[in-house]
UniProtKB/TrEMBL annotation:
Name this polypeptide is given: Oligosaccharide repeat unit polymerase
Transmembrane feature ranges: 67-85, 91-110, 131-157, 169-188, 209-237, 243-264, 353-372, 379-400, 406-425
Originating organism: Methanobrevibacter millerae
Recorded superkingdom: Archaea
Keywords attached to this entry: Membrane, Transmembrane, Transmembrane helix
Keyword Transmembrane helix carried by entry: yes
InterPro entries per record: O_anti_polymase (IPR002760)
Length: 427
């Protein structure tokens, strides 16, 4: 495995070096460095609220140190359930209790038995990691223009053509999320090594977010845009890049974006009228998604119905994608995509037993990642945990059903397992 990693990173380092030597990128980075310098030394920057703005927020130990503990997934899931306009069934209540209990065990209890000395953590070269992130963003930008050309317009200006976007072209665009995470974590390392100031790293975070907004909002996608915002907030929170009050404000902006974009898109698509309460779209979406989960719970029972077919449908080339397969399961409609919540796939594939096992595994990946990040404060593990927690939070509604997201969790599981095994056998 190390041989493959070595060859891959050597190849990506060459690509990174060649692009950075090109006239186009030399010019772009020169302009960005100039703007950064003006930003850092700007008089108006001093007018921006400082670290101690809304200082009362820092008095809470939970807000100051534990906002993004893995258990936040359960808190957000609970809030999502509370939004529903309808009651959930008794059977689903049992399934949810199982999900919450086993996630708690995986995230909060099992990690206590591993890596208590933290002597076997794998370190990664800054140069290699930067090259990976830079190349991911290059690929994303390239496929962004291909996606725009394929539909002959800009989806955000003409929402109807958004449904003409081809997944083969748009999926690589979403690589901008891990690319952003990786570059942001590298800038965090530079800050930790005192190579750049806090103001500089904050500016670079902002530039990355602006690039993400430009690409993802243009295509009319809401969830990936929230992913970019959320992962930068989490990364900045644990890297001491953003203040506590900025985390709270960022969360409110994220919620506002969910409500606002969904509301205006619904009006434009004539699914609601302007007289409808903007919060209604959020409540009705939660209600519909939980209704879907109710049906999947009935179908799945204790041991499941699809027995792995749903999770296998995430593989590119499958006849139906996972969310289309959900549509087929509950309504025999394959032309729509339906979000099944975080546990929808689990209960449909393997029933309540599958929910227990998969939620425990998910909790353990997040829990051990949280432990490694907190103990090492290493830039790579802060970035990796931020990426995983971001998709776990967003998966509360959408489910973790995209092949690239499953790949992120698989890579994290491999790295964490390697660290655990090294710590066991090196004793």
């Amino acid at each position: 495995m190390s041989f493959i990693y070595s060859k891959l990173t050597s190849f990506l380092n060459i690509i990174n070096d060649e692009f950075h030597k090109s006239f186009l990128f030399t010019t772009i980075f020169s302009i960005l460095y100039f703007i950064e310098d003006q930003w850092v030394n700007s008089f108006f920057k001093g007018l921006y609220p400082g670290e101690n703005f809304l200082s009362f927020l820092k008095k809470s130990s939970i807000i100051k140190n534990h906002i993004f503990n893995p258990l936040i997934v359960l808190i957000i899931f609970s809030a999502f359930l509370a939004l529903s306009l309808s009651r959930i069934s008794y059977s689903l209540t049992i399934t949810l209790i199982i999900a919450f209990v086993f996630f708690f065990i995986g995230a909060n209890i099992l990690p206590r038995f591993f890596l208590n000395d933290m002597k076997s953590v794998i370190t990664f070269s800054r140069r290699d990691i930067y090259s990976i992130g830079f190349c991911l963003i290059l690929v994303s930008i390239g496929f962004f223009f291909i996606s725009i050309a394929s539909v002959g317009g800009i989806p955000i200006l003409k929402p109807s053509i958004r449904y003409l976007l081809k997944p083969a072209f748009t999926m690589p665009v979403f690589l901008i999320i891990p690319g952003t995470c990786i570059l942001a974590s590298v800038y965090l390392k530079d800050f930790q090594d005192n190579l750049i100031t806090r103001s500089q790293v904050r500016f670079r975070f902002l530039v990355l977010l602006i690039i993400d907004i430009a690409l993802l909002l243009t295509l009319g996608y809401r969830t990936p845009l929230l992913a970019a915002l959320l992962l930068l907030i989490i990364l900045g929170y644990y890297g001491n890049i953003v203040a506590v009050w900025e985390v709270v404000l960022g969360g409110l902006i994220g919620v506002g974006a969910i409500i606002g974009i969904g509301y205006f898109r619904s009006i434009h698509e004539l699914t609601v009228s302007s007289a409808i309460d903007p919060f209604y779209t959020l409540k009705s979406r939660a209600d519909f998604t939980l209704h879907v989960l109710n049906l999947l719970d009935i179908i799945g029972g204790n041991f499941g119905t699809t027995h792995g077919q749903l999770i296998a449908s995430t593989i590119p080339g499958s006849e139906l994608g996972p969310r289309m397969m959900v549509g087929k399961l509950i309504a025999w409609r394959t032309e729509v995509t339906i979000t099944p919540t975080l546990i929808g796939q689990m209960v449909a594939d393997f029933g309540k037993v599958g929910v227990a096992v998969e939620m425990c595994i998910l909790g353990f990946i997040l829990g051990i990642g949280f432990k490694i990040m907190r103990k090492t404060k290493d830039y790579f593990y802060i970035g990796l945990y931020s990426l995983l927690l971001t998709y776990a939070i967003l998966g509360v509604e959408t489910g973790i059903l995209d092949i690239q997201v499953l790949f992120y969790f698989a890579v994290a599981f491999f790295i964490y397992t390697t660290i655990i095994l090294k710590s066991i056998f090196n004793k």
